[in-house]
Amino acid sequence: MVYNNQPHEIMLASFVRMQQRKPVMQMKMRNLLTGKVVEYSAKSGESFERADITRQKVQFLYADQSGAHFMNNENFETVDIGKELSEDKVGYLKEGAEVYIIYFDEKPISIELPIKVDLEVKSTPPGIKGDTATGGSKPATLETGLTVNVPLFINEGDRIRVNTDTGQYVERAN
To answer: Do 90 and 50 form a contact (C-beta atoms < 8 A)?
Structure first.
């Protein structure tokens, strides 16, 4: 929906009716441009414009100083996304990964990643025997250049699953 001339996604909505008051719809919305969460109470009869949001499936090609470059799977055109939208996402993408680009009024506003991605550990310090009792962690650099904290039993060459929302290690991948 469009709220304050910007696209928002409704995360939570509940109908509230209190004594001696008119009923309202309480909503928690996330701004799709900034990611900021806003709470709003809509009165009875209030309407909102539906946001013109489209999703396009694309394949990741490469990233450079100007941003990330993708290929449209339908017409094989190159789609370029600026660094301001892509710099926090490219660490989860390796060549050939399929993602969605979100458009608002035919302008790209976001890259939608899968919830979890599997990446190979390129370098990490060796775990020392006996350290596992503390349940500690160590930094690991992945094949995309992303650095995450992993348990001590993870070694170079292992494939791990990483949560793209939190940037944290989830489990060892097969």
So the answer is: no
Q: 70 Cβ partners below 8 Å, 6+ apart?
A: 58, 59, 60, 61, 78, 79, 80, 81, 99, 101
Evaluate whether 118 touches 173 at the Cβ level (below 8 Å): yes
The answer to whether the CB of 79 falls within 8 A of the CB of 101 is: yes
Q: Which domains, ranges and CATH numbers included, belong to the chain?
A: 2-42 (2.30.30.30), 53-112 (2.40.50.140), 116-172 (2.40.50.140)
In angstroms, the CA 11 to CA 127 distance is 41
Helix and strand counts by DSSP (H, E) for the chain:
1, 14
Q: What is the pLDDT of residues 110-146, one digit of tens each?
A: 888 999 999 999 998 887 666 555 667 889 999 988 9
Segment (H or E) for 137: strand 137-142
pLDDT digits (tens, 9 = 90+) for 40-92: 988 888 888 888 888 899 999 998 888 899 998 888 888 888 888 888 888 89
Reading the block at residue 41, the tokens are 């109470």
Angle at 95 between CA 146 and CA 104, to 5 degrees: 85
